[in-house]
Amino acid sequence: MSFQSGITVLVFLTTMSIICGRPRGMNEAWPASIGAAIILLTGIVTRADIVDIIDKIGGASITIIATIVMAVILESFGFFHWAAALLAKISKGSGHRLSWNIHLLCFLMTLLFNNYGSILITTPILILLLKNLKLKPHQQIPYLLSGALIATASSEPIGVSNIVNLIALKIIDMSLWMHTAMMFVPATLGLLFMSWLMYIVVRKKLPKRLPDSVMDVEEAFFTKNFHPLKKGVSVKKKQQRTKFMLKVLLFVFVMRCLLFVASYINIPIEIVSVLGSIVLLAWR
């Protein structure tokens, strides 16, 4: 092993150890940045390498960050609390129906945003929902685990839902729409099989009937963050919010479709993603 290879391996192992251990709650960005600086200062990675790396991952990183920004904006709208309340309502007290609805929610959130945004934002909402249903920790685990796995795997049907997909497409010079045309059907079939298999594994641990909710998750969010509702107008306000959420969801769906249009006509998809985030932020 050469001297440079030895330094690279040592820096990598040290950096990963600190990131995993996180002494004194250290932010993982610090050891990663210091490790990268050491690699740069020793000349192991040249300026040409940096330019090549930026060219390969720059657009993908901007696209994913812009999509996460959109997800965070929707969270500030109360979209995910609204979705969680809708989830509980359409499950109609059935623990098994709730499991399938969680699968569907995580699949759609990853499709509309990306796997990172879906997991980071929907998981706390699911925890809130499950606790609100007075489920014990061991009863919550099947829902949370299957939801997280579906959210991760749902990035396969369309390449824009995962930064690794976008980087790989850049390296092999394949367009986003071509990847989706080739992968959507087989990846979706794989997801359906995975979802069914997980249900078979955990179905005996799912409660047949769900307890009554302690509170209205949606109402609690809006009362805390926007305005308290007077008695008698709650239903009307909820209907107004539902119409608004559907409009926002339609906007996100249109922006998602525009990414594929941009890919087809050779417009950088990161431009569309950033513009979509700016419009949604202005709307907010």
Task: Report on this structure.
By secondary structure, the chain is mainly α. The protein folds into two domains: 1-45; 59-283, no CATH class. It has helices spanning 3-21, 29-41, 47-77, 79-91, 95-112, 115-132, 137-153, 163-172, 176-202, 217-225, 234-264, 269-283. The longest helix is centred in the N-terminal third of the chain and has 31 residues, at 47-77.
Number of helices: 12
Order of helices and strands: HHHHHHHHHHHH
| Overall number of structural domains | 2
Low-confidence stretches: none
Radius of gyration: 22 Å
Q: Say how many strands there are.
A: 0
* Principal-axis shape: globular
Mean residue pLDDT: 84
Largest sheet geometry: none
Distance, first to last CA: 55 Å
Share of residues in strands: under 5%
| Percentage of residues assigned to helices | over 70%
- What structural class should be given to the helix and strand makeup? mainly alpha
Which tags fit this structure?
284 residues; mainly alpha; 12 helices
List the topology elements:
Elements: H1 3-21, H2 29-41, H3 47-77, H4 79-91, H5 95-112, H6 115-132, H7 137-153, H8 163-172, H9 176-202, H10 217-225, H11 234-264, H12 269-283
Overview in brief:
The chain is mainly alpha-helical and 284 residues long. 78% of the residues lie in helices and 0% in strands.
